[in-house]
């Protein structure tokens, strides 16, 4: 595999992971603050 | 028969005498729909409902059924 | 030098110009998010007060009092009751408005009872002269035990005095301005003895409200001091009267109004805008204008964006080193981003109009005008706001249904709002309309394409109403129909407020939905350019064999195109697409459209991007725009894929189907059950399928 193909697979994994956490990954609400509170 | 807000005519003023506290929302009280305050009917919506009043400097529209729960006396000043 | 941050909470009644004060204080240094767990918008901004002190300003939802009647209002109380909250303010800034001072001060006196340092901002001071109002500020400051900033956020006057007061908040008095416990002396005495360390007014709020209060067992307070609902409400009424007595006494001296000087434009405008005939004419005129202009004004930037991204893709392909990753950039990522950016003009225009309607105060008149009519369909006059803002996006629209007091009316509003034509449908409509409807004018005035768009919008509203009527018959529960709507004074919308609003909403779209669209584009590209070895891998050979066996003379470029088509058909996406083809074929779609329809269930706007990606994969000609590519697609028999029947069928499918995961999620949140979103999904999509099916079968 050349570098271009490796990059394609990396981007693909990122895309799938992003969609997965967007639609299925929200099952674990953080206890003390939301993800927009600027505390982390 | 008791007079209620629903019987006011457009442009007519009255004084709130009593409110049926079980039937009207607290929010309306807080806006100043309280006994003793002057109330004026500004506008009636097409088809006769809702009604647009001014009381306590608040410009507020409420439905006919709510207006029926608010008793008034007419201002007896000569206007 | 040490840097200090002061935490400020901005509180006030709706329509007091609180948001413009916030915008003046913070400018563009704001962040919009959500409160954890609930979908109430949380706006935080920062503001430099002096060389080494800055303020973090939290813009709380507008509320009439501390007696909450919605989750938005609850946020205010929960924050002010909880000293351990991260954003518990060092100082509260209560924004009031000069014309409604009396009513606005009610909330102020309640906040003062919480013994938080409080600044009083009296906004819209530029209207004082016109209204003949004169204020005795020193007297008011003394009586209300606070410092006052007289401000005109519109004219940017007095903002510095707010900053100064915030800077010196430690010198503010925390003494309440009246003693509300006199409404029931015995009761409050008992309460005081039972909880000697607690603030009496806080206890009272805990008893009357549904709020959580740290360090205190709510059940304990309630069980010992419970009263019937009516008794409590009576006490609350007494409390309100008591507060108004104090306010009236104060204003009698502190505020002079020369009635003869007061001119009331509001009454005159109201007479016209809520007129039983002209009111409706004006309302529908405004709607017409909005829809015509969205279509006409945004077509120029949209075409420009389309062309720009097309040439960008071909530039990338020819200038980057050849390979897989370059293909991904040119065929997946660039068209994917283009598919997002192309909506920006339309979304910006829509939010612009909606924000102008809201800011000007006109929206309340529409609510007043439409209530009786809407009630016939089981909706409320207030449903007009969600239904109109649904033309931008169903998500904020469904959230704005919160201020509908009656639960049944609110539920029906939530359920039917997704039928209104949201901005995500617009690009789909726009591209399909431009393919199947000629660009002509009728009656020399109406653009036929714009008119078709208008019909689709009306169809959306019509379906919303029809389903509301059905739901109104089916749903059998009674709830009290409270309806209170304030008629604010008319204002010329402030450029800054509208601008910030449009910017925020557009940004939220580009970075929210945009990321999803981009990710889907990447995956689609991959699935479209990869496939099983035996067919996809040997495409060149198979096609060449076919050509040689047919013994026809075919020029090489045709062979190349045939290879590309064969590859696409045998790629993973082609395999998936052809497997669903039997379901969508009766609707007039081929498998490529089918893939686009399926991916649209993540979000409708994915449609155009998907087709763009599918048509780009392996396409030797990169200089054609999406629209031209779609127009050039042909069936095996040589006729156009996007003919009139298929186009209409697609338009109707997109008009009715529930294709937005985010909307389903928000409906679940707002109704607190999966039942309603699932019903929405099944009924809307099933209905869409049937309508699209009949349309195609009749028209083909």
From TrEMBL, chain B:
Keywords: Iron
Superkingdom, natural source: Bacteria
Signal peptide per UniProt: none
Keyword Chloroplast: no
InterPro entries, sorted: Fe-transptr_FeoA-like, FeoA, FeoA_core_dom, Transcriptional_repressor_C
SUPFAM superfamilies: C-terminal domain of transcriptional repressors (SSF50037)
Pfam families named among the record's database cross-references: FeoA (PF04023)
Ferrous iron transporter FeoA-like domain location: 3-74
Alphabetized GO MF terms: transition metal ion binding
Name this polypeptide is given: Iron transporter
Source species taxonomy: Bacteria, Pseudomonadati, Bacteroidota, Flavobacteriia, Flavobacteriales
TrEMBL record, chain C:
Positions that bind GTP: 12-19, 37-41, 59-62, 123-126
Iron found in the keyword field: yes
One term under GO cellular component: plasma membrane
Residue sites binding Mg(2+) per the record: 23, 26-27
Keyword set includes Nucleotide-binding: yes
Signal sequence bounds: none
SUPFAM superfamilies assigned: P-loop containing nucleoside triphosphate hydrolases
Top-level taxonomic group: Bacteria
Record's protein name: Ferrous iron transport protein B
UniProt xrefs under InterPro entries: Fe2_transport_prot-B (IPR003373), Fe2_transport_prot_B_C (IPR011640), FeoB_GTPase (IPR050860), G_FEOB_dom (IPR030389), Gate_dom (IPR011642), GTP-bd (IPR006073), P-loop_NTPase (IPR027417)
């Amino acid at each position: 595999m050349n570098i271009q193909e490796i990059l394609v697979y990396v981007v693909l994994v990122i895309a799938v992971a992003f969609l997965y956490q967007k639609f299925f990954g929200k099952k674990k609400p953080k206890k003390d603050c939301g993800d927009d509170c600027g505390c982390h | 028969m008791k007079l209620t807000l629903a019987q006011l005519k457009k442009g007519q003023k009255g004084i709130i005498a009593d409110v049926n506290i079980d039937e009207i929302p607290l929010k309306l009280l807080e806006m100043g729909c309280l006994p003793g305050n002057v109330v004026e009917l500004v506008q009636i919506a097409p088809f006769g409902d809702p009604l647009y009043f001014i009381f306590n400097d608040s410009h507020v529209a409420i439905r006919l059924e709510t207006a029926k729960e608010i008793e008034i006396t007419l201002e007896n000043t000569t206007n | 030098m040490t840097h200090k941050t002061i935490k400020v909470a901005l509180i006030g009644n709706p329509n007091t110009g609180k948001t413009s004060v916030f915008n003046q204080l913070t400018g563009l240094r704001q962040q919009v998010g959500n409160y954890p767990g609930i979908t109430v918008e949380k706006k935080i901004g920062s503001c430099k007060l002096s060389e080494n002190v800055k303020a973090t300003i939290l813009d709380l939802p507008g509320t009439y009092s501390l007696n909450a009647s919605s989750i938005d209002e609850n946020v205010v109380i929960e924050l002010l009751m909880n000293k351990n909250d991260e954003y518990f303010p060092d100082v509260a800034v209560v924004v009031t408005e000069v014309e409604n001072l009396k009513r606005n001060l009610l909330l102020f006196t309640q906040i003062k009872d919480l013994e938080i340092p409080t600044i009083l901002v009296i906004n819209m001071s530029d209207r004082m002269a016109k209204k003949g109002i004169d204020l005795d500020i020193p007297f008011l400051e003394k009586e209300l035990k606070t410092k006052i900033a007289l401000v005109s956020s519109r004219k940017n006057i007095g903002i510095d005095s707010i900053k100064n007061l915030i800077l010196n908040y430690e010198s503010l008095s925390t003494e309440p301005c009246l003693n509300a416990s006199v409404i029931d002396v015995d009761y409050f005495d008992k309460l005081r003895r039972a909880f000697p360390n607690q603030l009496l007014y806080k206890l009272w709020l805990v008893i009357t409200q549904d709020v959580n209060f740290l360090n205190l067992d709510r059940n304990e307070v309630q069980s010992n001091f419970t009263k019937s609902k009516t008794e409590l409400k009576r006490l609350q009424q007494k409390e309100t009267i008591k507060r108004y007595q104090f306010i009236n006494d104060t204003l009698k001296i502190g505020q002079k109004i020369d009635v003869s000087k007061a001119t009331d434009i509001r009454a005159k405008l109201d007479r016209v805008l809520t007129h039983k005939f002209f009111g409706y004419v004006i309302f529908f005129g405004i709607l017409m204008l909005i829809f015509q202009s969205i279509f006409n004004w945004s077509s120029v930037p949209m075409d420009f964006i389309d062309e720009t991204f097309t040439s960008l893709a071909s530039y990338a392909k020819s200038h980057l080193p050849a390979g897989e990753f370059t293909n991904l950039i040119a065929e997946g990522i660039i068209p994917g981003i283009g598919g997002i950016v192309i909506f920006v003009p339309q979304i910006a225009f829509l939010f612009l109009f909606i924000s102008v309607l809201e800011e000007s105060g006109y929206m309340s008149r529409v609510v007043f005008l439409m209530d009786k009519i809407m009630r016939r369909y089981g909706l409320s006059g207030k449903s007009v706001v969600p239904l109109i803002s649904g033309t931008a996006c169903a998500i904020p629209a469904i959230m704005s249904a919160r201020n509908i007091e009656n639960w049944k009316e609110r539920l029906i509003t939530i359920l039917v709002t997704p039928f209104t034509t949201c901005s995500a449908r617009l690009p789909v409509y726009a591209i399909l309309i431009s393919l199947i409807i000629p660009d002509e004018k009728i009656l020399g005035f109406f653009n036929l394409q714009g008119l078709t768009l208008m019909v689709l919008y009306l169809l959306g509203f019509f379906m919303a109403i029809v389903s509301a009527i059905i739901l109104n018959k089916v749903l059998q529960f009674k709830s009290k129909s409270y309806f209170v709507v304030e008629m604010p004074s008319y204002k010329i919308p402030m450029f800054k407020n509208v601008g910030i609003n449009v910017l925020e909403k557009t940004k939220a779209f580009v970075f929210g939905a945009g990321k999803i669209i981009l990710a889907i584009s990447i995956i689609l590209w991959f699935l479209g350019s990869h496939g099983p070895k035996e067919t996809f891998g040997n495409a060149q050979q198979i096609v060449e064999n076919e050509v040689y066996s047919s013994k026809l003379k075919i020029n090489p470029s045709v062979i190349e195109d045939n290879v590309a088509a064969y590859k696409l058909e045998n790629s993973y996406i082609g395999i998936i697409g052809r497997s669903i083809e039997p379901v969508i074929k009766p609707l007039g779609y081929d498998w490529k459209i089918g893939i686009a329809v399926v991916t649209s269930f993540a979000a409708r706007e994915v449609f155009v991007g998907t087709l763009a990606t599918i048509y780009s994969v392996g396409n030797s000609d990169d200089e054609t725009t999406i629209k031209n590519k779609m127009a050039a697609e042909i069936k095996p028999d040589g006729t156009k894929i996007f003919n009139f029947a298929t186009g209409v069928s697609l338009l109707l499918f997109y008009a009715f189907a529930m294709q937005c995961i985010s909307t389903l999620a928000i409906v679940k949140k707002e109704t607190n059950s999966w039942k309603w979103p699932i019903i929405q999904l099944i009924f809307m999509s099933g209905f869409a399928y049937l309508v699209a099916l009949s349309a195609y079968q009749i028209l083909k």
